[in-house]
Write a structure and sequence with these properties.
The protein is an alpha+beta fold. It is built from 14 helices and 26 strands. The strands form six sheets. The chain has a seven-stranded antiparallel beta sheet with strand order 17-16-20-19-18-21-22. It has a five-stranded mixed beta sheet with strand order 3-4-15-14-11, with helices on one face. It has a four-stranded antiparallel beta sheet with strand order 5-8-6-7. β1 (about 10-15) and β2 form a beta hairpin.
Length: about 725
């Protein structure tokens, strides 16, 4: 549908005998059917928000209708191009994780592509990443096989160390490093490598005392390992710990035997401008265009091919997009200079392609926050059990996007953010980071501490980044702060509704230490038993939030604040439409009245009732979850904070939606949740809640909503193997 493809006749490798040509007519028919479906849904959900895409317009600004285009709708070519854009953005996510998440700027790198299809996506991906140069090897389509034949031989030697890198041990450590370097070099010499072809890299695996996040530090030119370690640590994690010593976990030498480089084959120099062998039609952002097709083996050194154009050889195709120039090197490789060109103007109006792209970008940012938190934390709960979550919130505190972390965190965190907004108002200043864990302030159980960082623009908070992590201990009557016999919140540890963890950019270590170490006053309760890990994990959460702020800043720089905030809202609106449609479908499927009611009731082992009346209004797709009839809070720790109840509802709604939508506040917009105060699902502020993950079955399979709903919730809450009585 959208070349680049070889001009007709197309290659014949399809069909049961692998001898049939590509079915262009079948492809067009399939996209026509998809076009009708997309335009019908888009018109129903947002008829007045069409942004115009990249479509051609006449002098009066009217859309120039293309082939088989529906008035006011997308063409099949626009839809196909939209799929490509979303696929390109999905490919950009892991690249950003390897660069931006570790403190590197992608714009300072060269994009190397390989594989038969790599050259078709290279220019688009480079533009998305801000990269200005692309390198395409002349054997890019078979580069893996070519590389195996040229691979270097590597020998590594490693020894444990477990010493601090101080003057007392430094000389001994470096002597041992020289010794194993000699062993690695000798091993390559025995394989026939001459000394001139052997390179030895020396490493120290360094970490700060009291942490287990090590950094493999290569010997710098000046030999100052500590400086190199601190620079890399600061780049990756956003801070250093200057008051702590540095430990050497192990020493490592890596000897590389360089393979013999094959004879250089230089292609002849070009004596005239490159000429296409033929032309074909390709669809780009602005529509169909005639482009030249160039044969790569026929191009000479110094030849320039200006985009849009196609460069082809036997195994691959390179798309040179508009405002890009391909240059052939002396060895026959291709360098592509990517100019900024005239970028598509993304407005605040809804565009379905940009909606998918922004969803990927927001989720990628949350994922990179999570990776930073995992690397910089020290506790087993966060680093190994991955008991943490990171998410982005809009200016109203509503959840916009999250990484695929713990669902029970993600649905509840927005309640924590909104509580701070209601409580602090304008007193929340720039440079301040808040922490909270109280169930009445949007928390779950006390070990889950939420750290929230606002981002200000012209004195106004424009969005928020938050992370929630399960801390190993915050006091209480039992180590680990998960007492099985607690009957009050004071017995479970320090309860914090709102504390400014960072003020004016300064970490308030003294203040938070006092909060965590002071006993709560309950009999036999103590303060935290592991303050050092608490502080390290809190710093890791602050660093994770800062990573998100930095990446959001790059996104705002690219699109502008108003556009980013508009798509924050569009993403929530999209989820809201999907949930409303799902609720309408449930109402129709079970033949309910326009305003129909479903009821369910279950009981805990101790006889406490869990009651739900679900009222669905099919006219607008809204619903009321009314838990009236649920039993009183219990004299134990099975009470569930309302934020966790809301979290279970939002996750359940998301699971019932058939479309691929991110979990966000939009899922709850059509829903009203009513939970009577003083019940097990909305207990008093002093009630014990540590075992709140054993929430409730909510809806059994006998309810006509959907048989799997009960299983989903039980699995979510860790009770999928328990039989409710």
């Amino acid at each position: 549908l959208l070349p680049p493809l070889p001009p007709p006749p197309s290659p014949q490798f399809g069909g049961p005998n692998e001898k049939e040509p590509l079915d262009v007519d079948g492809t067009c028919s399939a996209f026509d059917a998809l076009r009708h479906e997309v335009n019908a849904f888009y018109s129903a959900s947002a008829p007045a928000k069409r942004g115009g895409g990249g479509r051609k317009r006449d002098a009066e600004g009217k859309v120039v209708r293309g082939e088989e285009e529906e008035e006011g709708g997308m063409t099949r070519e626009e839809i196909a191009l939209g799929f490509l854009k979303v696929a390109n953005e999905a490919m950009c996510r892991p690249i950003r994780s390897l660069t931006q998440a570790r403190g590197f700027d992608t714009s300072n790198h060269v994009l190397a592509c390989f594989g038969g299809a790599g050259g078709q996506h290279a220019c688009a991906i480079a533009r998305s990443l801000g990269i200005r140069r692309i390198f395409v090897h002349r054997y890019s389509s078979i580069l893996s096989a070519f590389g195996i034949g040229l691979a270097d031989v590597v020998v590594e030697k490693q020894e444990p160390c477990s010493h601090t890198f101080t003057d007392e041990y430094k000389d001994g450590i470096l002597k041992r490093l020289e010794a194993i370097s000699g062993q690695a070099r000798h091993a390559l010499s025995e394989q026939g490598f001459e000394p001139a072809r052997i390179i030895v890299e020396k490493y120290l695996h360094l970490r700060y005392e009291g942490t287990d996040t090590g950094v493999m530090t290569m010997q710098p030119e000046d030999g100052d390992y500590l400086r190199a370690f601190e620079e890399r640590y600061k780049r990756e994690f956003g801070f250093t710990l200057p008051d702590r010593g540095v430990c050497v976990d192990d020493i490592r030498a890596r000897a590389i035997g360089k393979s013999r480089t094959p004879p250089t084959v230089e292609v002849p120099r070009a004596t005239s401008a490159a000429q296409p062998t033929e032309t074909t039609r390709c669809y780009f952002e602005g529509g169909w265009e005639e482009v030249g097709v160039f044969d790569l083996p026929s191009l000479h050194a110094g030849s320039k091919v200006e985009g849009p154009a196609l460069i082809m050889d036997k195994n691959s195709t390179i798309v040179v997009e508009k405002s890009c120039i391909a240059i052939i090197t002396n060895e026959g490789d291709v360098f592509i200079e990517v100019e900024g060109g005239k970028p598509k103007i993304v407005t605040e109006e809804l565009d379905p392609v940009q909606l998918a792209i922004f969803s990927h970008r927001f989720m990628s940012i949350a994922e990179q926050c999570g990776r930073t938190l995992q690397r910089t934390s020290v506790s087993t709960n966060v680093k190994e059990r991955l008991d943490f979550s990171c998410a982005i919130f809009g200016p109203d505190g509503g959840l916009v996007a999250n990484a695929p972390h713990l669902p029970v965190h993600l649905g509840a965190m927005q309640e924590a953010v909104r509580y701070q907004l209601r409580t602090l108002g304008d007193s929340w200043k720039e440079g301040e980071v808040l922490m909270s864990n109280h169930p009445a302030a949007g928390g779950s159980h006390l070990p889950d501490i939420t750290v929230i960082t606002p981002v200000f623009e012209e004195g106004k908070a424009v969005f928020y980044i938050a992370s929630r992590g399960h801390h190993a201990d915050i006091g209480g009557i039992a180590p680990g702060s998960m007492p099985p016999t607690s009957t009050s919140l004071a017995e479970e540890g320090a309860a914090i509704k709102s504390f400014k963890l960072v003020k004016a950019g300064v970490f308030q270590e003294e203040g938070v230490s006092a909060l965590l170490t002071t006993p709560t006053g309950a009999p036999h309760a103590t303060g935290t038993r592991n303050l050092k890990d608490n502080l390290s994990d809190l710093k890791a959460q602050v660093a994770a939030n800062q990573k998100g702020i930095h990446l959001m800043g790059l996104l705002i720089k690219q699109y502008g604040l108003k556009v980013v905030q508009a798509y924050m809202q569009h993403i929530q609106d999209n989820a809201e439409v999907a949930v409303r449609d799902m609720l309408k479908e449930i109402s129709r499927r079970h033949k309910l009245d326009e305003v129909g009611v479903l009821k369910a009731k279950d009981y805990m082992d101790n006889g406490t009732p869990l009651a739900l009346t679900l009222t669905i209004d099919r006219r607008d797709g809204s619903a009321v979850f009314d838990f009236d009839g649920t039993g009183h809070e219990v004299h134990g720790n099975l009470n569930t904070p309302p934020a966790v109840t809301a979290s279970a509802v939002i996750y359940c709604l998301r699971c019932l939606v058939d479309r691929e939508i991110p979990l966000n506040q939009g899922c709850l917009n059509p829903v009203c949740i009513r939970i009577p105060e003083g019940t097990i699902l909305n207990p008093s502020e002093t009630a014990a809640v540590v075992r709140r993950t054993a929430l409730f079955s909510l809806i059994r399979g006998s309810c006509p909503l959907r048989p799997a709903l009960s299983a989903l919730l039980l699995s979510l809450l860790g009770w999928h193997k328990r039989r409710w009585c």
